[in-house]
Amino acid sequence: GWEHYFAGIDLYSGEILWERTDLAFLTGEIGLLTARDYLLKNALLLDYGAPLVWRNQVIYAMGDQLLRSYRAGDGEIMWQRSYDSPVSTAPTLAGDRIYFGLEAMDGVGRLVCASPTDGRIFWDIEVEGTILNTPVIAGPWIIFGTDEGLFYVMEELF
Hints:
There is one protein chain. The protein is mainly beta and 158 residues long. The chain contains one helix and 13 strands, in the order ββαβββββββββββ. The strands form four sheets. A four-stranded antiparallel sheet has the order 3-4-5-6, with no helix packed on it. A four-stranded antiparallel sheet has the order 7-8-9-10, with no helix packed on it. A three-stranded antiparallel sheet has the order 11-12-13, with no helix packed on it. The N and C termini lie far apart (42 Å).
């Protein structure tokens, strides 16, 4: 297996406030990847691993099958959610929702909309290919591209 390293650092002093390591979570055929294969696969993605800070949380997608939320002050796990395929993008925030992509399995990826409070999924939609960039939210539009050369502009209707 392999581990992900997480840390909270004081903005002003640079002091490390907390550190933790968590094992990567991959199951099924995806779980048969070696650490080297995993690193090479994720190095080809345009975007993953950037933390999202929301209120008192730091939310991470590290390219495995978990979305993790840590308490910003002490690094304690607040929630985590697993998916049937790896998270392919860093999460982005718009209002009270987070958006991120899931890696394509058999050519079909997914855009997920979830709650930053607890990771509960509001909705998800199939797309052609793996989403390669953090979804951009501009007004009512959700914009992203996939490894199939497609560019999506979607509108969330309330």
